[in-house]
Specification:
Blueprint lengths: L2 E3 L7 E2 L4 E2 L4 E8 L4 E2 L4 E11 L4 E2 L4 E3 L5 E4 L4 E2 L4 E3 L2 E2 L4 E2 L4 E2 L4 E2 L4 E2 L4 E2 L4 E2 L3 E4 L4 E5 L2 H22 L14
Length: about 180
């Protein structure tokens, strides 16, 4: 089981159909919804405000989610935050994708089916419309997200759902290393 900490008597909530890796850290006001996936090393700190991960969303390895006092982070249904992303006081819409090592700041909103390119910085308060790709430091709109890309985002979400199901079924387990390849 993950590292779970109560904060001011508020205990994280994890739906039984969700998978949270044992090296993830959940503190305080964190709600992990049905069929969500939280990867190794993720840190979800609900010590300043609520962190909500909705149905089928995935937070990959080393994602950090935190907020300012009274703020919140909401990760929409089937949305994804790639490896090393930082979500701070922001909202991700349905099937939104935040790329690896991107940062999304306070009160920013990433619309449904939108993409934040890897290594981008989304400034405080930026509103990314649905089906928009943004990139850069600071992030700027590049173009509309097409149907093929939405299909690719959906496939990625489904692959993390498969990981979740397989992990809950016992296919992910601690093991001793082999001394040579089989």
């Amino acid at each position: 089981m993950a590292f779970i900490y109560a904060y001011d008597d508020v205990v994280p909530v994890i739906d039984p159909t969700a998978f949270v890796h044992e090296t993830a850290v959940l503190i305080g006001d964190v709600i992990i919804g049905p069929e969500a996936y939280v990867g190794p090393g993720a840190s979800l700190r609900g010590d300043s405000g609520r962190i909500t991960v909705l149905r089928g969303a995935n937070l990959q390895d080393n994602v950090v989610a935190h907020t300012y006092p009274g703020g919140e982070v909401v990760v929409g249904e089937m949305a994804a935050a790639g490896h090393g992303a930082v979500l701070h006081g922001c909202r991700l819409g349905q099937l939104a994708l935040v790329g690896m090592n991107a940062v999304v700041m306070d009160d920013a909103e990433i619309g449904d089916f939108s993409v934040v390119a890897a290594m981008s910085f989304v400034k405080t308060g930026m509103k990314v419309p649905p089906r928009t790709m943004v990139a850069g430091v600071p992030a700027k709109p590049l173009r509309e997200v097409g149907e093929a890309e939405i299909g690719w985002i959906r496939e990625g979400a489904l692959s993390y759902d498969d990981l979740r199901r397989r992990a809950l079924a016992g296919e992910l387990r601690r093991a001793e290393p082999l001394t040579a390849p089989e």
